[in-house]
Amino acid sequence: MPITLPDTTQQQAVASIERYFREHMDEPIGNVAAAGLLKFFLAEIAPLAYNQGVADAQAQMQQRVTEIDIDVHQEAFSFWQARPRTRRGQGD
After folding, report:
1. What is the pTM of this model?
2. pLDDT of res. 92
3. From 2, 23, 42, 88, which residue has the greatest number of CB atoms within 10 Å?
């Protein structure tokens, strides 16, 4: 599954690449070249970050599933612990 960006996001990314080259490299990069570089990074590098994000999300979800018994645990046989002891006929 290739990683794609919405058109407006892609335009912003290309503009960011152009700005980076203007400010940090010896030569500027054109719009077409920046778009090509972005396409390369999306195909070659972005899957690494995407897969790591998926792995991180899986680990987080697994941790939550492991702890769900703590969050939703209900004690059995707690009726007698929650009521004050009174005998029938007293206080009626």
Report:
1. 0.67
2. 54
3. 42
